[in-house]
Queue: 2 jobs
Job 1
Amino acid sequence: MKKIAIVLIISISLLLCACGNGNSNKADSSIESTEVTKKEFTEYEKAAVFAVKILQEHLKNPHSLEVYSIHGKNVEGEDYYFKIEYSATNNLGGTVEDKFYYCVSKDIFSSDEKEVFNGKAILSKSISLSDYLEDRRGDEKGFDVQIIMDNLDIINTEVYD
């Protein structure tokens, strides 16, 4: 009887060890997926992050921002135009859904930040729906909201004030 109990205990121990190894592999894969989202961003993607951060800075409660979609338009070598569909908390505590249209200058990512960042108004601005819809702006491209929101720290908007 003791032999059966010992064999049973050893079997359960091995089973638990095997399950533990499976969980550690899952942890490793989640670390890898985090590293994937911290990828090298294109200027277009950085401009999308910048537009979301500007939107967030203008909200009464920035932490209430929930972005539903981010779409952009750009013809190579020109400014970046964005439409961000979102919801946020207003002054009265109610949730409001809206669209934010924004233009980010192509010059914002210049290598000489001191010269370029003299004024945010010169480099980027709120735009109207008709400005966004102009055909010459190019085709509309969708962005992965989760990746943009998870990487808001790649742009320091304090530099732009």
Job 2
Amino acid sequence: MPAACIPSLFVIFVEMNMSILDFATIAFAITGIIATYFPRVPAAVASAFASMVTAHFASATPATETLLFWAVASTIAAGIRYLHGGRRNGNGYVATGTLAGTLLGYLISPTAASLICGGAAGAILAAIAYVRTPRGEKIDIHSRQFADFVGSRALPAIITCTMAAIALSSL
């Protein structure tokens, strides 16, 4: 049965004029977004950056300067994620808020600035929602601890979701 499905999937990709790099871009972007929900998986930012690189080679839409900027941003986000370890509390809230904000930002205007601003707004609102839940950390939203909480959870999620959205929109 699975062997019968392979030719039909191949025909779908050929008819859509998708190259293997387009397929790899989609796979890396989805993997990065899913890995954002799991803080112990350090590959979220790297996978989203790989989606941008494969999108660059597939269609050359993200310029080389754009790739350099996101390489630096990825390195910073990976460092923050590494230094804060795999703490799980609130990560699902922030990842979902960031993803929703990024999608809303793309619907408003398909530019990198609106993707970043939408993702940041969604991440901050999700972090506020998390600390107000009964299981959330009891952090005052006007404190340094809240800024650290948002920065350690939101920055990698914002960078991952934005890079994935840029890569997918360039196809």
